[in-house]
Each structure stands twice: as C-alpha cells, then as structure tokens.
Write a structure and sequence with these properties.
The protein is built from eight helices and 24 strands. It is α/β, with parallel strands linked by helices and 400 residues long.
C-alpha cells in the first residue's frame, strides 16, 4: 500500500510543497508514495495583487501542473484534523463528507483578515480573499450609478500597514476610472500609528508620505474606526467620515485549522516549527506558509505572512516531508535575504533590501520591479514536468 503525503491548501505554501515533495520523490526514483493536495479549488489565487483592478483575472489554474508532476488533487474543504488518527476530514463541493488518511501531513491552509467585533463591520470590504476583492471591484464600478456626493467619491481604508498602503495608493486611479478623470475624489487612511507608514520603518516612511501627498491620499493618524455603517465610519474620537466605500485591512490570523493541532502557536495562530518545518512535538506534521512560525535565519528573524516567505517555506516543507519518509537528510529552511516591494500607485513603488529596509529602487524603477514580481515571478511554473520539478528546488533563492 502506498504511503501518502497530504497537503492541506493550494496557496503559495501548499502548491510549492506539493511540487517540492514530488521533486524529491522523483530524484530518488520513489514511486511508493503519493502526494495529495486537498483544497477548495485547483488554482493559485494571486493574493498579493487583490488590491489591483481586474482582480477576477488574478488566479492561475493548477490542475494541469499537478497532473504533470504526478500530484493528485482532491477538491474539498478541510474541516477536522485528527492528529492521533492521522486523518483529515473534509467536505466536497456537493457537501458530502469524506476523509483522507496520511502518513505525513503538511498544513498549508493560509490566513485570513480577522475582522473585529465592531458595530457595522459587515459593511466594510476587504482585499483578502478573491471573492471579497471582486465584490469591491463591482462596487467601485457601480459608484457611477449613484448621485454625485462627497460620500460616493470617498474611500476610507482602515489600517496603514503594507496592504492598507498599497490599497489606498491604488484607489485614486481606480476611483477616477469609475467616476471620471475630473472627479473630486478622497482617499483617507485611518491608522493608529503616529506617523505615516510607521509600520514600514524609517527608510520607506518619507517616501510613503511623499507618494500620499502627490496622490492626494489623506492620513488620519492616532485614530481608530469605532463603527461602520452604509454611509461611512465613525472614529474613536467621535469624528464622522461620510464614505460609501470602507476597506478593512487590519489584523491577519492563521487558519483556524492550526487550533486542531495540539502544539504551541504564536499570537497570530501560527504553529511553532523547527528548522525543517516540522511542528514541534509532532513527527508526522509539518506546517508551511502563513500557518508556520519559522525562523528565517540565526539572527532572530521570523518568516512573515507574505508570498515571498510562503514560496520558500513551501519548497522547504515539501522537500523535508518527503525526506522524512525517504529517510534522507532534510534541507533546513533558511531565508536570510529579505526584500520588500511596496506599490504606491501612480507615484511608483519602493524596493528595499534587508530587515532594516534599505532603499534600493524608487518610483518607476521600483514600479518595474513590482510589475515583474506581481505578473511573472510569483506565478506557478509551466505545466511541464521537468521544468516544474526543477523550479521547486528548496535551494533556489526567492526574491518577491
């Protein structure tokens, strides 16, 4: 009977885990282990691009790719992990319950924006999942059908972190595309920080402020949204902002499936793993992508919940889970090179290197890099067996 590596999730971490596991099995000529991916859809959703327009196009099919490398795909939603029984219970698209037993499990179920218990938060949009991002896009396009008003022409972005900044700086162009080039639009970022772009550090911060000023993006600092309704937001200090569009970008948490693995988790719900991405205390369970709290180096840095880290984490997890069955040496996860590329809409982009975010490219030069990252580098390899397996080598550096 074949052994089974079961991977839960088909995001960046899950997809690359599957390819990397298949690669190592292939290198050893091992045919007695199958690699199975369980996910709601056989597609990679390009989540880092969900702040852009035309979001409905931002997914890549995985069916042919998985077939090319010999990975079996099961369409379904994981509901329960039974670590003791080494099985995962799921429900397929018809709602029928099923289960998959495993010899090794790779949890790669990702993360979601965590909406707070806030009055009216259901009126807010987000750019976290593709369905919500599409709903936002349809809403923006429909604004032109409403009577002209300040509220119609105003977008409030809750949160001034990476996603909030990229979303806010893209909004002026998206609003003018919907309402006309001469529309008197407003984009307001509500952020609890005391400085514009404080979360991005001293290097990028003045450039974020410069881009915001040039694009007309306003910041309400030292502020928090207290409530949301169909007509706008009320801030914690009682100030009212009329807006037909409110976008929530604050707070991300790992998939709740991590709570079904009896192990230590960090404040984001991520499972503590060793350098081989094995969940501490569980020889048969690995975690990767946004559900793994993993050290990137020996300097005290840990992987962030980004596709840049998920790609490398996935390659490492897939290799090491296969290595554990083959009885060969794993390749410890290591990702000492860290970059950021922050899209700032019509202003351009900022590309930095290092955890201290040293500025390397700005404006158009940065934008060209961001375009390459978003449209080429983070997409899956071609559905050709040799090329796809080669691309999954965990020793390939990731810059995205």
């Amino acid at each position: 009977m074949k052994q089974r590596i079961l991977i839960v999730g088909a995001g960046f971490g899950g997809m690359w885990s599957a390819l990397s596991a298949a690669r190592l099995l292939d290198l050893h000529g091992h045919t007695d282990t199958e690699v199975v991916v369980l996910a709601p859809q056989a597609e990679l959703r390009i989540r880092p691009r969900f702040y852009e327009a035309d979001v409905h196009k931002m997914s890549a099919p995985l069916g042919e790719l998985f077939e090319a490398v010999g990975v079996r795909f099961v369409k379904g939603v994981a509901e329960r992990i039974d670590v003791a029984g080494k099985k995962v219970e799921y429900r397929d698209e018809q709602g029928v319950a099923g289960e998959l037993v495993y010899d090794r499990l790779v949890l790669a179920s990702g993360s979601k924006v965590l909406r707070p218990s806030l009055a009216g938060v259901e009126h807010a949009f987000d750019v976290d999942q593709i369905e919500e991002a599409v709903r936002l896009e349809q809403h923006i396009k429909s604004l032109s059908q409403l009577p002209a008003s300040s509220a119609r022409n105003t977008v409030v972005v809750a949160g001034g972190g990476f996603t909030g900044i990229e979303t806010a700086t893209e909004m002026p162009a998206r609003l003018r595309s919907a309402l006309g080039a001469d529309a008197d639009i407003r984009v307001i970022v509500v952020d609890r920080g005391s400085e514009i772009g404080a979360a991005l550090g001293d290097g990028p911060r003045p450039l974020i402020a410069e881009a915001s000023a040039e694009l007309g993006v306003e910041w309400r600092l030292n502020s928090m949204v207290a409530s949301v309704d169909a007509g706008g937001v009320t801030l914690a200090d009682g100030q009212r902002i009329e807006a037909k569009t409110v976008i929530w970008t604050v707070g991300v948490r790992a998939s709740s499936l991590t709570e079904q693995v009896p192990a230590e988790r960090d404040r984001f719900g991520r499972l503590h793993v060793d350098r081989n991405l094995q969940v501490l205390g569980h020889a048969d369970v690995f975690a990767t992508g946004d559900v793994a709290y993993a050290a990137t180096d020996d300097e005290g840095n840990y992987a962030l919940m980004t596709c840049q880290h998920a790609i490398a984490l996935g390659r490492s997890a897939g290799n090491n889970v296969a290595a554990s069955l083959l009885g060969v040496e794993p390749i410890p996860y290591s990702q000492p090179k860290y970059v950021t590329c922050l899209d700032l809409g019509g202003w351009g982009a900022v590309f930095t290197e290092g955890w201290d975010r040293q500025i390397k490219f700005v404006r158009e030069a940065g934008k060209q890099l961001k375009t390459q990252i978003n449209s080429i580098w983070i997409y899956p390899p071609a559905a050709k067996r040799a090329e796809a397996l080669a691309a999954a080598d965990p020793l390939i550096p990731v810059v995205a």
